[in-house]
Amino acid sequence: MQDQTEQMLLATLAERVGIVADYHDISGTLHYTSDDTRRALLAAMGFPIDSISSLTEALQTWDEAPWRRPCDPVVVLREGEAGAPLFYCVALDEGSEPSVVLAWQIRDEANGVVREGQAGPGLSAVEVRVLDGRRHVRLEIPAPSGLSLGYYQLLVRAEGLVGGTEGATRIIVAPRQCYVPPSIEAHQRLWGLALQLYSLSSDRNWGCGDFTDLGRIVEWAGKELGAGVIGLNPLHALRNTTPYHISPYAPSSRLYLNELYIDLELLPEFHRSEEAQRQFRAPAFQAMLQALRESRRVDYDAIATAKRTMLELAYCEFLKEAYRGEEPNLQPGTERARLLERFIQAEGQPLESYAIFQFLEEDRRLIQSQSATWHDWPEEFATPGQPVRDYAAQHRTRIRFFQYIQWVASEQLADIQRTAERLAMPIGLYHDLALGADRNGAEAWIYQSVLAFGADCGAPPDPFAPEGQNWGLPPINPQALRASGYELLIQLLRHNFRLGGAIRLDHVMAFCRLFWIPRGRPAAEGTYVQYPFDDLLAIVALESVRSKTLVIGEDLGTVPDWVREQLAKARVLSYRVFYFERGWDGAWKQPGDYPAQSLAVATTHDLPTLTGFWSGEDLRVRAGLGALADETARHLAWEERQRDKVGMLRALGREGLLPQGVTEDLGTVPVMTTDLCRAIHGYLARTQSCLVLANLEDGLGELSQTNLPGTVDSHPNWTRKYALPVEAILCDERMKQLGAVLRSIRSLQ
Fold this sequence. Notes:
Shape: globular
Structural class: alpha/beta
C-alpha cells in the first residue's frame, strides 16, 4: 500500500511540473516513463522526493504557491488584449474584499516611463481558498490599457489592510506573429549560401576563418552571385580547447561571440603597439601563422593562444591611449574609448557577469588547476553574488579586457551586416542559436538558478540514432525559468537576433517539450518535459519584431504535427532537408509539396555532404567506428543507400532535371558530379520554400561531413577546412554556375 501511495504521489507531482507519463517515438511506439526516471528528474528540478512525507509536502507547496504569492511572476499578453485580467492574491478577513483597493504602478522596462492607477474599492473574489486557517482570495484587475509591445514591471499594493501586501510581476506584451521581411511578404523566393566560418582558409587569416574572410564572402555572394543571405554556424563564445570545447553547439555562452573570429589586423591599437608588432613580425611567429594557415585542420588551441596574446598587447596599448586617471576611476579620453564605454553601458549586467566569469576562470585556474571548473571554486565564488562583485571591483581593468574583446568582435560582425545591407541583400547574415550551453561555462554559472544540472538533454531512440542521443547539456528548468520572468530566454533571443537578418533556432521543439535524461543514465531512460510553449513563442515573436529578424525553427526529428502547426501560425519557418522530405511510400516529395513558409536545404552539418552521401563515405566512416555492427549491417545500409540514390534520380527525372547522359540507372552517375549537385539544388530552387540555402561544401564537392553525431575525439568534428581557400572560392566556376542556377530558377518562381 505504501508503494502504491508513493507511486501515485510521484506520478501526480511529475504531471504537475510537466514530466510526461508517456510519449510516442518517431516510429509510433509508445514509451512509458518509469518511476526511477520521475524521481531523477524531479530531483534535478529541486524537489525533495526521498519519502512519502517529502513528496506530500512538495505537492502541497506546489499547489499552494499561487495563493501564497501576491502576483504571478510573469504574465504574457498578446497585442490587442486590452483589459485582459490580472490576478492578485491576498489573505483577508471575512467580508473585507469590498474595502480593498489595489494600487498599481507600471514601468516600461525600455524607457523607464511609469504609469499609476488603482482598482477598487468594491472588488469581489474570483476564487477563494483557506490556508492555515485563513481565507485567501484572488482578486481580478484589468491590465493597464494602451500597452505597446514590450516588457513592463508591474507593482501592485493592497491598501485598506493592516500591513498591506505588495506584489510584482513582469508583463510581456507580444505580437501574435514573428517578423517576416518585406521581400518574403512580397512572395520573393530568396536563396543563399551556408558555411562554417572557421572552415575558411585564406592567405591572410591566422589559421581559421575570421570576420574579414566572412566579409569577403558576403561581398562576393551578394554582388556577383546575387545571394540574399549567408548562413553561418553558431558564433557563440567557446573555450577553443580540443577536443571537448570546440563544438559551436556546446558553447561557454550563447550571449557572446567567439574571439577566434576577430581579425586582429583591423585593430588600430594592434598596429600602434610596438610590442605587438615586434612579436607579430618575429620569424617564429610568422612561421607559426603560416603553418596554421597551411594545416587542413583548425588548431583551436594554437590559434586561440596566438590571438589572445595579441589581444592582450593591443588592449594594453588601448589603455595607454584611451584612458586618463587611475584604476578604478578610468576616464575615457578618446572617441574609441567612449565607444567602448557606450558598448559596456548598453550591454549592462549580462556583459558584466560574462566578463567577471572570464576573469574568475582565468584567476582560479592559476590558483587551483587547469582542470578546475566553476563547480570546484570556493563557496564565495560559486554564485555571482555580492562576494564576487566585491572581488571584481578590485580588478576592473582586467574585467574590462573581456568586455573589450566582445566590443571589437561585435563591431567587426556588425560591419559585415552593414555590408550586406549596402549590397541590398534582403536578409544578409543568418545566424544559428544553439539549444544549450556547456554546464561548466559562463552561461551555466551566471544562470545556474534556472538550470537542471542533474539531467542532460537529448533525443529518444530513432532510426538515425537507435540508442537515442545524449547531448550532455543541462536543460533549462521550465518552472525556474518562469519564476525568473523568462530572463535567460529574453537575453538569449535579444543578443542573437540583433546580429543579422535571420536566425535558426536549433531544436525549436524545446520551446514546447524537451527530452530530459537523468544524468549518467542512457538516453533510453529519458522522457519529455513540457515547457510553456505559448509564452515562449510569444517572446520569440516579440524579439523577432523588435529586431526585424526572420525566424527559422529547426524542426527535425520527433515533432508532433500540432507543434509545426503552432510554429506556422507564429510565422516561424520550417526547416526542410532534402534527404528527409519523403512521402509515406519513401518517394521524394515533389517541389510543390514543400510548404511556402519554410527553408529548404540539401543537407546539414550533422549529415553527409552530397558527395559523401553519393559515395557512401559516411557509411564507411561509421563502419570503421563500429557504428555498423557487422558485415550484414553494413550490407543493409549500403543497399538502403543505393535505393535512396535511385529515389533521388527518379525525383529529378520527374522534374526534367537529370543532367545530360544521366538516367535512373546508377551506373550512369557513379559519383556525385557538379552537374548532379546543380540539379539537386535546381530541384530545391523549384520548391515553394521562400528560402533555399546551398551549403558551401556541397558546391565545392567536399567529401566529409562537418560533424558525426555521437563522436567527440574519434572523428575530426568541427575542425575541417574547405579544400579551397577564400581567394580560390571567389573565382571558382562551380560556385558561379551553382549561383546562376539558383538565381535563375528562384527569380521565376
